[in-house]
Design a protein that fits this description.
With 311 residues, this protein is α/β, with parallel strands linked by helices. It folds into 2 domains: 139 residues, 3-Layer(aba) Sandwich (Rossmann fold); 163 residues, L-2-Hydroxyisocaproate Dehydrogenase, Chain A, domain 2, CATH 3.90.110.10. Helix content is 42%, strand content 20%. The protein has 9 helices and 14 strands. The strands form 4 sheets. Strands 3-2-1-4-5-6 form a 6-stranded parallel beta sheet, sandwiched between helices. A 3-stranded antiparallel beta sheet has the order 7-10-11, with helices on one face. Helix 1 packs across helix 8 and helix 5 packs antiparallel against helix 6. It is globular and about 50 Å long. The structure holds adenosine-5-diphosphoribose. Adenosine-5-diphosphoribose (APR) binds next to helix 1 and helix 3.
Length: 311
C-alpha cells in the first residue's frame, strides 16, 4: 500500500482498528505495544487471515517505533480502559504519562503525521498529545464524536425500525457525561428526528447515548467498548487517507470557535489530507449553547487536573 498508519496500543481498540484498516485495504499497518509478543502475534494472525479476507495490506507488529517511521497517520489507543464504576476521568493520571511517552516517540519518527487520539479521558489526552508533539492544531484530533454519533444513530435506527444507513446524527462537546447530542441536527433520510419521535423518546435515546460507553463497560465488566470505537477511528483515518473531506464530529483544538479557546472539544470538522481542514460552526439554540458551555467547563476542569499532575 502507498499509505502507512501506525496504531499504538495493540489491545482491544488498537487491534480491531488494525484489522479494519487492513481489511479495507486503506494502508499498511504498524502495530506497536509495550508488551513483548502481543503486537507481533496479532499482526501475524491478521496477516494469516489476509488470503481469506482478500487484502494485500502489510501488517507489522513491534515494541519500538522504528517501523512506524514516516507514517501518514498515527492512531493512539495506548493506555488503560475503564472497569465498572470508573469514569473516563479516573484514567487521567495513568494515561497522561503513557500518552506523553508515546507521543514523544511517534512525533520523532513521523513528524508529518496526523495524530488521532483514542485513549481516555479523550479531550485531556488530546491536550497531552498536542503539547508534547508540538504539531499544528490541524494535525492533532480526538475520536469521540463519530463514536457518540454512531451510538445515537444505532439507537435511532432501533427505535424507528429503519436502516442505519438512513440515519444521521450529531453529538458535540466533550466525550463524557456532558456530551451534547443534537436532535435538531439528527435525521432519518433528511427528516429531523424531532418530527419522527415524541420528546420523551428522544430524551431517552439522548440519555442512552451519553451513557453509551458505561452501558458497555457494565456488560463487559473487564474493559470498555472497542468494536465501535475502532470503526470510528478508522472512518476518520479513511477520510484523511483518501482526502475525502467528510464532515465528522471530532475533538478539535478550538481557538475562538463556538466562543471557546484553548480547549479540545467535539465539533464538526472537515477531514482531508491536511487533517482538520475546517471547523464548521453551526448555529445553536440558547439551550444547546448552554449545554456546550457546560461540557466545555468539564473539559477545562480536566485540563486543570492535568496541570496539577506530574506525568
Ligand atoms: N506504549 C504502547 N502501548 C501501551 C503503553 C505504552 N506506553 N501502555 C499501555 N499500552 C498498551 C497495553 O499494553 C494494551 O495492550 O495499550 C493497550 C490497551 O489495550 P486494552 O487494555 O485492550 O484497552 P482498550 O480497550 O484497547 O482501550 C484503550 O482506548 O477507548 C479507550 O478508554 C480506552 O483509554 C482506553 C484506550
Amino acid at each position: 500500500m502507498d499509505k502507512k498508519v501506525t496504531v499504538v496500543g495493540a489491545g482491544n481498540v488498537g487491534a480491531t482498528a488494525a484489522q479494519r484498516l487492513a481489511e479495507k485495504e486503506l494502508c499498511d499497518v504498524v502495530l506497536v505495544d509495550i508488551i513483548e509478543g502481543v503486537p507481533q502475534g496479532k499482526s501475524l494472525d491478521l496477516t494469516e487471515a489476509a488470503p481469506i479476507e482478500k487484502h494485500d495490506a502489510h501488517l507489522t507488529g513491534t515494541n519500538d517505533y522504528d517501523a512506524s517511521a514516516g507514517s501518514d497517520i498515527v492512531i493512539i489507543t495506548a493506555g488503560i480502559p475503564r472497569k465498572p464504576g470508573m469514569s473516563r476521568d479516573d484514567l487521567i493520571s495513568t494515561n497522561a504519562g503513557i500518552m506523553k511517552n508515546v507521543t514523544k516517540a511517534v512525533a520523532q519518527k513521523s513528524p508529518d503525521a496526523v495524530l488521532i487520539i483514542v485513549s481516555n479521558p479523550l479531550d485531556a489526552m488530546c491536550h497531552v498529545a498536542y503539547e508534547t508533539s508540538g504539531f499544528p492544531k490541524n494535525r492533532v484530533m480526538g475520536m469521540a464524536g463519530v463514536l457518540d454519533s454512531a451510538r445515537f444513530r444505532a439507537f435511532i435506527s432501533m427505535e424507528l425500525n429503519v436502516s442505519v444507513e438512513n440515519t444521521h446524527a450529531f453529538v458535540l462537546g466533550g466525550h463524557g457525561d456532558t456530551m451534547v447530542p443534537l436532535p435538531r441536527y439528527s435525521t432519518v433520510a433528511g427528516i429531523p428526528i424531532t418530527e419522527l419521535m415524541a420528546q420523551d423518546r428522544i430524551d431517552a435515546l439522548v440519555a442512552r447515548t451519553a451513557n453509551g460507553g458505561a452501558e458497555i463497560v457494565s456488560l463487559l465488566k473487564t474493559g470498555s467498548a472497542y468494536y465501535a470505537p475502532a470503526s470510528a477511528a478508522v472512518e476518520m483515518a479513511e477520510s484523511i487517507l483518501k482526502d475525502k473531506k467528510k464532515i465528522l464530529p471530532c475533538a478539535a483544538y478550538l481557538d475562538g470557535e463556538y466562543g471557546l479557546k484553548g480547549l479540545f472539544i467535539g465539533v464538526p470538522v472537515k477531514l482531508g489530507a491536511n487533517g482538520i481542514e475546517e471547523i464548521i460552526e453551526i448555529s445553536l439554540t440558547d439551550d444547546e449553547t448552554a449545554a456546550l458551555q457546560k461540557s466545555a467547563a468539564a473539559v477545562a476542569e480536566l485540563k486543570d487536573v492535568l496541570a496539577g499532575i506530574d506525568y
